[in-house]
Amino acid sequence: QVQLVESGGGLVQAGGSLRLSCAVTGRTSSSRTMAWFRQAPGKEREFVAAIFRSGGRTYYEDSVKGRFTISRDNAKTTVYLQMNSLKPEDTAVYYCAADDSLILSSIRVGENYDYWGQGTQVTVSS
Q1: Residue 25: count of CB within 10 angstroms of its CB
Q2: DSSP states of 24-86 as a string?
Q3: What are the mean pLDDT values of the chain's consecutive 10-residue runs (126 residues total)?
Q4: Which terminal residue of the chain has fewer beta carbons within 10 Å of its beta carbon, N or C?
Q5: Rounded CA gap, 15 and 70, in Å?
Q6: Distances (CA, A) of 36 to 92, 94, 126
Q7: What is d(CA 63, CA 43) in angstroms, rounded to the nearest whole number?
Q8: pLDDT of residue 78
């Protein structure tokens, strides 16, 4: 089993920054893909960013490219989402997700991930 715990959410003004963290415990895997998703009120959950397996290549949803950065520490026990130039439309609950068997074409679909955190609220005021 894998446990994920997010932290770092909060209230920030438009243009500000936040860094989300996702602590990963439990079973380790060299083929693990880590991702961030978000869900705004009344909207479907959407892909934000992913770091693919041990190679570490990163992928982003178009609206966050150039503003958000996904990264992980060398021990692969924490995944981060640095969010800069935040906009009110970034307001959502942000979820960390993990899976040990994804292929590249599957990383943007939340239903493909086996493990999820409880979520952390990010609110961006205008």
Answers
A1: 11
A2: EEES--TT-EEEEEEE-TTS--EEEEEEETTTTEEEE-GGGTTTEEEEE-TTSSEEEEEE-S-
A3: 96 98 94 97 97 92 98 90 98 97 95 97 97
A4: N
A5: 18
A6: 12, 7, 23
A7: 16
A8: 95
Q: CA torsion sign, 78 to 82 to 86 to 89?
A: negative
Structure tokens at 92: 């959502």
Tallying the residues shown for the chain, one arrives at 126
pLDDT for 75 equals 83
Fill in the amino acid letter for 120: T
**Residue 112 in 3-state DSSP?**
helix
- Cα 32 to Cα 50: distance, rounded to the nearest angstrom: 11
The one-letter amino acid at 4: L
Residue whose entry in the numeric block shows the structure tokens 């994804």: 102
Contact 18, 122 (CB under 8 A): yes
Residue 117: DSSP 8-state: -
First to last CA, the chain: 40
